[in-house]
Design brief:
Elements (H helix, E strand, L loop, with lengths): L1 H33 L6 H22 L15 H36 L11 H22 L12
Length: 158
């Protein structure tokens, strides 16, 4: 079930990349053929980039595709390997928890004040909710994985 939900988020990330590409291409065409680029391109492109990164985060963690420093841990076995895995996951959980908590503080303020981007006046709330929820989901997945055996050979198949 976790992989199904995280795959849907990864598909959302892929859609964000596709939309971002289309917007940039359309903006270039408008700039050089019409002489009037879209005024929202930079802001929307940045928001889509952040959305694609954060939407892909839970899947990367669930599928063990995130970057790991395994210089020492890959040489361990038995109880030592298990301890290294749990400590690594605990660090990831702590990072995600702190990030989600801090992001929620900003998200709550943004939603309360209905803040918008500077030039295009795009609502910022939905983007920040996605960022906060993705960080929290990533931490929850990492905590769940800490209870399981560490991955040995390769990440889960896409």
């Amino acid at each position: 079930m976790i992989l199904v939900v995280t795959r849907m988020l990864a598909a959302l990330a892929g859609a964000a990349i596709a939309v971002m590409t289309l917007i940039v291409v359309a903006s270039v065409v408008m700039r050089y053929l019409v002489g009037a680029p879209f005024r929202f391109t930079e802001e929307l492109g940045g928001l889509l980039l952040a959305a694609c990164l954060f939407a892909a985060l839970p899947y990367a963690i669930a599928a063990n595709l995130n970057i790991r420093v395994t210089l020492v841990s890959e040489r361990l076995s038995g109880v030592a390997a298990r301890v290294a895995w749990v400590v690594g996951q605990a660090i990831l959980v702590a990072f995600c928890a702190v990030f989600a908590y801090e992001a929620w503080q900003i998200t709550e303020l943004t939603l309360r004040l209905a803040l918008r981007s500077e030039q295009a006046r795009l609502p910022l709330g939905p983007w920040l909710v996605l960022m906060t929820a993705s960080a929290a989901a990533g931490g929850a997945i990492a905590a769940w994985q800490a209870l399981r055996p560490p991955p040995r050979d390769k990440p889960l198949a896409l």
